[in-house]
Write a structure and sequence with these properties.
The chain has 257 residues and is α/β, with parallel strands linked by helices. Helices cover 49% and strands 7% of the residues. A hairpin with a 4-residue loop joins strand 3 and strand 4. It is globular, with a radius of gyration of 18 Å. The N and C termini lie far apart (46 Å). About 3% of the residues have low confidence. This is DUF2268 domain-containing protein.
């Protein structure tokens, strides 16, 4: 599968409703407008005259060709799932879990979406792909249904994805939420907010409050602590992180300091 030629769709008709009609087979239980609401929440563009200019710029920057090369590299390197990857322009205010400048993404077990802005560098494009494709590879290796994932599972998944980014691209390409707080603060957050709540499921309201750091909790709480937990383990091999149990990263009392 790999990179889908969404550039052709966008050049023919960039209306979100028309675009999402192409995706009904990917989301068989959802209507196009519901698909768009989901994708927009994670960064997909809003319909405007700016969208047409963004599409033209992304086409001229060969984003789809660059994406294909990145997919081929990591699909071969990681022996990961051969899934469709959809690239769309990024909405100006759409990104909530990576840098707010150029990119966002959304991963499922069987597909992946990238939302990017004109001017994105090759390494930034690679960073968002690595992060999201690591999710895909991990989802393919764990046996649980996603509805059974715990808060710890989600935190560790985000932390491991950024560990992969750092491994291939270096710390300069880590998401901003990886360095919002000091290690001392993250240790404190783990003890105060998360340690006793790691078994929460996504259907429970407090799960997303803690994971995303919604008020009154610190911003990006679960994401930041997830990366902190992953950092405590040395010599993590990327391929092994696809299947390593989340419980391995539970921070014991003896690990403090």
């Amino acid at each position: 599968m790999g990179i889908i030629d969404t550039n052709v769709w966008l050049q023919n008709d960039s209306s979100p409703n028309e675009i999402c009609k192409h995706l009904v087979d990917e989301f068989p239980k959802m209507r196009p407008n519901s698909i768009y609401q989901l994708l927009q929440y994670h960064g997909m563009y809003k319909d405007s005259s700016q969208t047409k200019r963004d599409v033209e710029s992304l086409v001229s920057e060969n984003i789809w060709s660059k994406g294909k090369a990145i997919f081929e590299r990591f699909h071969g390197l990681w022996k990961g799932p051969d899934i469709p990857v959809y690239i769309f322009p990024l909405h100006a205010g759409g990104l909530f879990h990576r840098t707010q400048d150029t990119k966002s993404g959304l991963a499922f077990r069987d597909k992946l979406f990238l939302f990017v802005r004109p001017g994105i560098s090759l390494k930034e494009l690679t960073a968002v792909f690595i992060h999201e494709y690591h999710h895909v590879c991990r989802l393919a290796c764990v046996k649980e249904d996603e509805k059974d994932f715990t808060l710890l599972d989600r935190m560790v998944m985000e932390g491991l994805a950024e560990h992969a980014v750092k491994t291939y691209l270096g710390k300069d390409y880590l998401a901003k939420w990886t360095h919002l707080y000091s290690d001392e603060q993250l240790q404190h957050f783990w003890e105060k907010y998360l340690k006793e709540n790691i078994q929460l499921k996504r259907i429970e309201r407090k799960h997303d409050q803690l994971l995303l750091g919604k008020s009154p909790y610190p911003k990006m709480l679960g994401y930041g602590v997830g990366y902190f937990l992953v950092k405590q383990k040395n010599n993590l091999k990327i391929k092994k992180t696809f299947a390593i149990p989340s419980e391995v990263f539970y921070l014991q009392e003896t690990e403090k300091g």
